Amino acid sequence: MIELRQLQLGPMANFVYLLADPATKECAVVDPAWDVPAILKAVEAEGWTLTQAFLTHNHPDHINGVGPLLKTHDIPVFIHHEDAHVLKAFEGNLKKVHGGDRTKVGGLTVDFLHTPGHTSGSQCFHVRENLLSGDTLFINGCGRVDLPTSDPEQMYKSLRRISQLPDKTLLLPGHDYGDKPCAPLADEKETNPYLKLSATRSLEDFLRLVGF
Questions:
Q1: Distances in whole angstroms, Cα of residue 89 to Cα of each of 19, 57, 76
Q2: Segment-wise mean pLDDT, segments of 10 residues, the chain, 212 residues
Q3: SS3 for 6?
């Protein structure tokens, strides 16, 4: 069993996630940002214990709550090693991970999938049949590839990998940019032009789609 809560916070329609093991009541927060009191209130309301934080990438709108969070909870913060440099102030709490690493939240196994493209250290979290995708993949969209450390070719490869996950996987994106807050990956494989093209067409076709 897994418990998941999706919180929309901040002026950029960010999704912050809480994932918990209902048996142990241990909880992790994904991309703590904008309103840490609201996040902690949601954790408390469920009777959970916050034990760790996961970061999909290092952009400010996904990490601006790390400092306030660590003032109240001295917990490990998992980030891909290529994106860790922006959080040097919290070095003592950082757990720098690589693609293929995994950890536990209670009895839940969390797999770290390195999905560069939006940033060099972008990662998704695969938990049971759920994919928390940050800014790599949105509902009917994908993250920008024209920012510092972005790479459209890497985004193509990352989306191609994601397209190989089981159809029943539930996509949980980092922003509320679509017509719904989440969707089965099967639906996105049919309707998301970026994911569909990455799965079926050439890199050159993808580069044209994203304007390169």
A1: 26, 16, 14
A2: 97 98 98 98 98 98 98 98 97 98 97 98 97 98 97 98 97 97 97 96 95 92
A3: strand
Closest CA to 143 of 159, 131, 164, 161: 159
Separation between Cα atoms, residue 186 and residue 42, nearest integer Å:
30
* Tokens representing residue 12 in the block: 């950029």
- Residue 2 · residue 25 · CB < 8 Å: no
- Report the CATH number at residue 196: 3.60.15.10
For residue 123 the two structure tokens come to 């990662």
Whole-angstrom distance, CA of residue 15 vs CA of residue 5: 10
Number of domain units in the chain: 1
pLDDT at 82 (0 to 100): 98
> Could you tell me the two tokens for 142?
């994908």
Q: Is the pTM of this model over 0.70?
A: yes
Question: Could you list the residue range(s) of the whole structural domain that residue 55 is in?
Answer: 3-209
State the Cα–Cα distance between residues 76 and 63, nearest whole angstrom: 14
Q: How confident is the model over 81-137, as pLDDT tens digits?
A: 999 999 999 999 999 999 999 999 999 999 999 999 999 999 999 999 999 999 999
E-state strands within 10-140: 14-20, 26-30, 49-54, 77-80, 94-97, 102-105, 108-114, 123-127, 130-134, 137-138
